[in-house]
Design a protein that fits this description.
It comes from Tripterygium wilfordii (Thunder God vine). With 326 residues, the protein is α/β, with parallel strands linked by helices. Helix content is 30%, strand content 23%. A hairpin with a 4-residue loop joins strand 5 and strand 6.
């Protein structure tokens, strides 16, 4: 970085974003784009559609080339700390193609608006609006997307996401209970891959890994300027004022955590808290040894990726979680 560039930077959110003094956002990663279409490796088709015309929010839909029966529908929320990546990011696109092929599902990937241009709770609002769009296809209520009308079994609906997207899935799973969508959408399960939860008081490896903890602290303060800091209920679901986990609107939850991930201990804490919350469903957790955060996206050649995808498929199609550690 040259001296002129340094002088322009008001905030450096390593290694993803620089906020310049004039308010310009300079995105350093996550801007690559892969178009939707036919994936020759997996035989999966995808297309982009605008689902919320008022805001321009889009979704990328995925389906197997050959659909002889109606398929489970997974509504997927990508990660990226709420401030980076999109539905068209190449590694996300490739990963979701493989998930769809493995699980034989219809998948809708939501392109919610990103912070800091759109600070939280915008991502949650866009994601909720996306669920309302999905619900518009129930019982012929006027939803106009033919892939959902023709290929989706809306009685087998799942929420899923990685990192920040797993966080979104959690919050939507709570919000839907007792809402106007509760009678329309039956959430069969929620899949959280390396969920992004945090807190003001460090736990586990957060207390010793000062470098990565400071990075995550910096990320959160960028997307959610809040006087509650890391104990805002959006990022810490266990603080006073947070909705009870007992209100989660599904019968099953599958959590994936990664051994080397700075977020690992929060995932385990969520698992323990959910079990003790009074929620009447079943939660399973799977820890993948020797890997880090979202390894299945960043390192798709890793031999443990296939195991994760097979476990996800089994949870959706057979109601079974994979073994506890892979």
């Amino acid at each position: 970085m040259d001296q002129q560039t340094k002088a322009e930077v008001a905030r450096d959110v390593f290694p993803f974003i620089q906020v310049l003094k004039d308010g310009t956002i300079r995105r350093l990663v996550g801007t690559e784009v892969t178009p939707a279409g036919f994936d020759t490796e997996t035989g999966v088709l995808s297309k982009d559609v605008v689902i919320i015309r008022k805001t321009g929010v889009k979704a990328r839909l995925y389906r197997p080339t050959s659909c002889t029966n109606k398929l489970p529908l997974v509504v997927y929320f990508h990660g990226g700390g709420f401030f980076t990546s999109t539905i068209a990011e190449p590694k996300y696109h490739d990963s979701l193609n493989k998930i769809v092929a493995e699980a034989n599902i219809l998948l809708v990937s939501i392109d919610y608006r990103l912070a800091p241009e759109n600070p939280l709770p915008v991502a949650y609002e866009d994601s909720w609006a996306a669920l309302q769009w999905v619900a518009s296809h129930v019982d012929g209520e006027g939803g106009g997307e033919n892939w959902i009308n023709d290929y989706a079994d809306l009685g087998k609906l799942f929420l899923a996401g990685d990192s920040a997207g797993a966080n979104i899935s959690h919050h939507l799973g709570l919000k839907i209970k007792g809402s106007d969508l509760d009678a329309k959408l039956k959430i069969r399960g929620i899949i959280m891959i390396h969920p992004y939860f945090w807190g003001q008081v460090p736990i586990g490896k957060e207390a010793t890994d000062h470098f990565r903890k400071s990075m995550v602290d910096n990320w959160w303060s960028l997307v959610c300027p809040s006087e509650k800091e890391n104990d805002d209920p959006l990022i810490n679901p266990f603080v006073d004022g947070s909705p009870s986990l007992a209100g989660l609107a599904c019968d099953r939850v599958l959590l994936f955590v990664a051994e080397n991930d700075i977020l690992r201990d929060r995932g385990w804490l969520y698992y323990e808290k959910l079990k003790k919350s009074g929620w009447e469903g079943k939660v399973e957790i799977v820890e993948t040894e020797g890997v880090d955060h979202v390894f299945h996206i960043l390192d798709p050649s890793c031999e443990k990726v296939e195991t994760l995808f097979k476990g996800l498929s089994s949870f959706i199609n057979h109601g079974k979680a994979p073994v506890a550690v892979v």
